[in-house]
Amino acid sequence: MPHIFNRFYQEDAPITRKGGGTGVGLSLTKSFVELMNGSITVISQVNKGSDFEIQLPVSSAAAISGTDYKESESPQVTFKKTQVVLENTVSKTSDLPLVLIIEDNTDVAFVLKSTLRNKYQTLHAENGQVGLEMAFDVIPDIVICDVMMPKLDGNEVCKTLKIDPRTNHIPIIMLTAKVTQKDRLSGLSHGADAYLVKPFETAELLTRIDQLILLRRKLIEKFENDGLSNFLKSRTENPADQFLKNVIQSIHEEIGNANFGAKQLAFRLHLSESQTYRKIKSITNVSTAVFIRSVRLKKAKELVLETNETISEIAYEVGFNDPSWFSRAFKDEFGCSPSAMRN
């Protein structure tokens, strides 16, 4: 009850979800009442109902409008509820991160999509079950998920995504009207990376998303700076780290095979090609093919610095059939040719 006049506030309970409200009506009513220097209060009893009382001041000094009111001249106003339509289109050529919004309230989903427009691509799922299916299909960069939803609630969605190898690397932001510490701990215990209470500030939401994206960038910077050997030796329980280690080890096992590419890697990971691409892209920001080449070249760099093998021998050893192409790719990756690095 202390929160019902707050804009966008909704109690997360199945009985209130059936009404399909947006948490605007009572806030708007309170604003109108206060504009007239009035007050609004509520008395509520469980299983009996709620009584709202509005008090408006009457002043003998109030200005006279100067217009006689005639009922016959009152305008006839009709209201038509419009259905918000959310488009689910994603550009395959866009470099913007993809955010999957799992939210059963269309108006809230519309606000989220509008907030993220121009900085992120967005997809919308109207319930938890559809959200899971879309997450497994497209492998988004971020998931924003409501807690109370039909068919499958947000905690179950979060738990499922965090234990599935296809999606366990994806950061998840939970949205809910539940404000107690117990509710927050419940969401975090299911693997949520962040927990925002409705009504949320758009600036806070954007900051949380930016921070989670930044963590992914720091991961790949660590991979780039530490080198393959140190990265593979590092101990971590981070799903993204573990996935990358698995990818790198799979490439190393076939590193001399010039025909080993995205299709073969996906087969070894027990994922589809598109799922492999989306997962690698969301973690490293490069395609599967580019990442495979980068791993080959990093291994080549180790061989250049630590062995006496010829440049041609190293090229063939890491899966390049053309030593000249190998040297050009090596220079593009590290800024100098393999022979110059050795000297």
CATH topology of the largest domain: Arc Repressor Mutant, subunit A
Tell me the total number of β-strands: 7
Runs with pLDDT <50, length 5+?
none
| Spatial arrangement of strands, main beta sheet | 4-3-5-6-7
Radius of gyration, Cα only, in angstroms? Answer: 28 Å
What's the end-to-end separation, in Å? Answer: 74 Å
Task: Report on the biggest sheet.
Answer: 5 strands, parallel
Highest-level CATH class of the largest domain: Mainly Alpha
| Structural class based on helices, strands and sheet pairing | alpha/beta
- Assign the CATH superfamily of the largest domain: Homeodomain-like
Order of helices and strands: HHEEEHEHEHEHEHHHHHHHH
Helix content: 40-55%
Domains (count): 3
- The helix tally amounts to 14
Mean of residue pLDDT values: 82
The amount of beta strand, in percent, is: 5-15%
What is the general shape?
elongated
CATH architecture classification name of the largest domain: Orthogonal Bundle
